[in-house]
């Protein structure tokens, strides 16, 4: 199925997860317009979409730093990324 792009199933699942998160944000925006802007600990006024972008960007940096410093396995950065995502949507 993904042989034309040399994709693996984990890569496909990652993109499915990202697009699912964007879909959830679209549904939330339709049901509750406005995005619930708030100012967080980083001093930024953000909406739900901004917080998703910040959490995805931070997650990529966490994984790249982990790979550069420690290598495999990737369970450590996964746990850190989940904590970062929760922090972004809770405080940022």
UniProtKB/TrEMBL annotation:
Record's protein name: DUF2160 domain-containing protein
Transmembrane segments: 6-28, 49-68
Pfam families on file: DUF2160
Annotated keywords: Membrane, Transmembrane, Transmembrane helix
Source organism of the structure: Ruegeria sp. PrR005
Database matches in InterPro entries: DUF2160_TM
